[in-house]
Amino acid sequence: MSALAAFQREFMDTLFAAAPPGDARLAIYHGAVRANWARALASAYPVVRRLVGEAFFAAAAAAYALAHPSRSGDLGAFGERFADFLAAYGPAASLAYLPDVARLEWALHGSASAADVPPFDFAALQSLPEDRHGTVRLRLHPAVRLLECAHPVVAIWEANQHGRDGTPSRRDGAERVLVARRGFDPLPRALAPAEWTLLEALARGFTLDEACAALGDEAGQLERLLVALAAEGVVCGFDAPG
Amino acid sequence: MPATPAPGSVGIGLRAPHYAQILERRPALDFLEVHAENFFAAGGRARAWLERFRAAYPLSVHGVGLSLGSVDPLDEAHLARLEALVRRFDPLLVSEHLCWSSFGARHANDLLPLPHTREALDHVVPRIAKVQERLGRQLLVENVSAYVLPGGEMPEWEFLVQVARRSGCGILLDVNNVWVNAANHGFDPYAFVEAIPAALVGQYHLGGFEPTAAALVDTHGARVSAEVWRLFEATVAHLGPKPTLIEWDTRLPALDVLLDEAERARTLTACARHATRQVA
């Protein structure tokens, strides 16, 4: 190993050691990197931070950064596995809902920076002959995220927004969640069963005929649901074979 | 190719809490500098802001995460995003740091010091050349604050000059970092500045440090210190006026504080130019 590589390895091991180094100058780096990681996590996970408090969050962030080191020079990419980490993090064991809240916040974080695409072109879809509609595959907007959660994460998230007192409208029950952008603001919404079935079918690349079959008894709602999802900006385009 | 920035132009680092105010007030700044990584996203609000700023001001793109000096391979994905950003926004200046940030695929997300050795020189020069080739333009490379000296075969200023001469990059001379390193490692900051050939320097940075028991720390969380303003005056007198940036990152103050610092840089630059002419 070259002298430069040996130096960088040793320096990095010092930074990633749990305890600060004895050398006060090296300790400046040891502290600075933790502050950077903690700031990045706090920016992606404001509700988790509010739920657990400053000190708990700082400790969790420090432990996370060592367990799942940053892999990118872009701190916006740091924190992808925080939900998994919290699920296995002993001090958070009594907060069963916390990993789901983290999953929702990571979905919001990714949604916020997803590509901008033009709105859905209804006229283009309508110009297709009706007998071809069934073979169309609708594309979801790049900012769309779908999550299945064992806890009412949307209620918890909403209750912990600025100006709210933190009391969720419900404390139990699973939620299926859509994250989509309104303007540039990613927002979560709990989905009705038929909406979830349809969106999951579209996310899997089903044709409209296949999505209709997946809806089963609710198939009659297909058009109404699609119009609503397109108006919400959830559907942004389509692929028609041939 | 983008236009060349005026030698005595002055800008500030663009930070999110000031976005709306800057567009509303349109302060008399010659350029705005952004951290490249904050605009790596494919879309969303940050990107839309940058489009608006681009229409109002010339931009400078300052990377903080490329890890130029790491022995890890250059992060191609990172470089691709930097390239896309530069091609889209066509900034006046593009800069990065003469440092390393990652090893063994772990990232410290901090600007770590390189040893000033021939080995490090031979390592970083072709990497800078490669980045310049990818971007299709010259890169400015900034001297960083360092709290430890990893040992070296030459002084920092010689290392910096060699990097620029051999790679064809320009120097982003951070005057505050010169001061901080001089204080932390016991050299003469004026000797550093005097050793730099004027033609290699493409930009100055000015920021604030904070003293701690262990060292001066480059926090970008204070006004430019009186000593650094004096060093800046001497720098402009010696190397000539260059585009100058006021940087502030932690405990960001009101926009007016940054504008005040920028105005001071503008005034000192004009005075130093005048002084130089009189001497000549």
Characterize the structure shown.
- The complex is a heterodimer of chains A (about 240) and B (about 280).
- Chain A has about 240 residues and is mainly alpha-helical.
- Chain A folds into 2 domains: about 100 residues, no CATH class; about 130 residues, Outer Surface Protein A, domain 3 (Alpha-Beta Complex), CATH 3.90.930.
- Chain A contains 11 helices and 5 strands; from the N terminus they run αααααααββαββαααβ.
- In chain A, strands 2-3-4 form a 3-stranded antiparallel beta sheet, with helices on both faces.
- The longest helix of chain A is centred in the first third of the chain and has 21 residues.
- Chain A is elongated and about 75 Å long.
- Chain B has about 280 residues and is α/β, with parallel strands linked by helices.
- Chain B has a single domain, classed as TIM Barrel, CATH 3.20.20.150.
- Chain B has 9 helices and 12 strands.
- In chain B, the strands form 3 sheets. An 8-stranded parallel β-barrel of chain B has the order 1-2-3-4-7-8-9-12, surrounded by 4 helices.
- In chain B, helix 4 packs across helix 5 and helix 8 packs across helix 9.
- The longest helix of chain B is centred in the last third of the chain and has 25 residues.
- The radius of gyration of chain B is 18 Å and the shape is globular.
- In chain B, about 50% of the residues are buried.
- The chains are: A mainly alpha (about 240), B alpha/beta (about 280).
- Chains A and B meet through helix 1 and helix 2 of A and helix 2, helix 3, strand 5, strand 6 and helix 4 of B.
